């Protein structure tokens, strides 16, 4: 599995605007924000895609969702609402091969997505 830029962010080799970090996860602002709040929540351990996650990853994936909730509270979008989304594969629009949830908010978000 080729390493991505996210592993370099985890090791703090390249800068990111980190909003939350713990032993197993990290959350940082997306470089190309699609909403007033757009944060990525990633596991520190690389899993390249949801398609390759296993039952052993279930606790970690659940943890990332709780981190997404923490991020929403930290950035004060928890009352107005937000979207937590993970893109998977080509048609899902995934461009970085290190699993991540997008946390988007700060404006009304259209549905269905494009
Ligand atoms: P996806 O297309 O779902 O794989 O999402 C990847 C996201 O990573 C995109 O929204 C990019 O803007 C974002 N991104 C890529 N490189 C960086 C970086 N160095 N720091 C922050 N966000 C990044």
Q: What descriptors fit this protein?
A:
alpha+beta, HIT family, subunit A, 5-stranded antiparallel β-sheet, 3 helices, binds adenosine monophosphate
List the helices and strands and how they pair.
Elements: H1 5-10, E1 18-21, E2 25-29, E3 37-43, H2 58-74, E4 82-85, H3 89-92, E5 101-105
Antiparallel strand pairs: 1-2, 2-3, 3-5, 4-5
Bound molecules: adenosine monophosphate.
Q: What portion of residues is helical? A: 10-25%
Give the overall shape: globular
Q: How would you classify the helix and strand content by structural class?
A: alpha+beta
CATH topology: HIT family, subunit A
CATH superfamily: HIT-like
- Number of β-strand runs: 5
Strand content: 15-25%
Series of secondary-structure elements, N-terminal to C-terminal:
HEEEHEHE
Average residue pLDDT: 98
Radius of gyration, in Å, reads 14 Å
What is the CA–CA distance across the termini? Answer: 29 Å
Number of helices: 3
> Uncertain spans, ≥5 residues at pLDDT below 50?
none
Small-molecule components bound: adenosine monophosphate
Can you identify the CATH class? Alpha Beta
Strand order of the largest sheet: 1-2-3-5-4
Major beta-sheet overview = 5 strands, antiparallel
The number of domains is 1
CATH architecture: 2-Layer Sandwich
Task: Explain this structure.
The structure is a single chain. The chain is built from three helices and five strands, in the order αβββαβαβ. The protein has a single domain (5-105), classed as HIT-like (HIT family, subunit A, 2-Layer Sandwich). By secondary structure, the protein is an alpha+beta fold. Strand 2 (25-29) and strand 3 form a beta hairpin. The radius of gyration is 14 Å and the shape is globular. The relative contact order is 0.23. The mean pLDDT is 98. It has helices spanning 5-10, 58-74, 89-92; strands at 18-21, 25-29, 37-43, 82-85, 101-105. It starts with a helix and ends in a 9-residue tail after the last strand. A five-stranded antiparallel β-sheet has the order 1-2-3-5-4, with helices on one face. Adenosine monophosphate binds next to loops.
């Amino acid at each position: 599995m080729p390493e991505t830029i996210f592993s370099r962010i985890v090791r703090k080799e390249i800068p990111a605007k980190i909003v939350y970090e713990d032993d197993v996860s990290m959350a940082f602002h997306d470089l190309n924000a699609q909403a007033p709040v757009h944060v990525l929540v990633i596991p520190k351990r690389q899993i390249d895609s949801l398609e390759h996650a296993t039952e052993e990853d279930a606790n970690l994936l659940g943890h990332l969702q709780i981190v997404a909730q923490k991020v929403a509270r930290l950035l004060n979008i928890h009352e107005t609402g937000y979207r937590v989304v993970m893109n998977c594969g080509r048609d899902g629009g995934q461009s970085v091969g290190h699993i991540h949830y997008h946390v988007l908010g700060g404006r009304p978000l259209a549905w269905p997505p494009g």
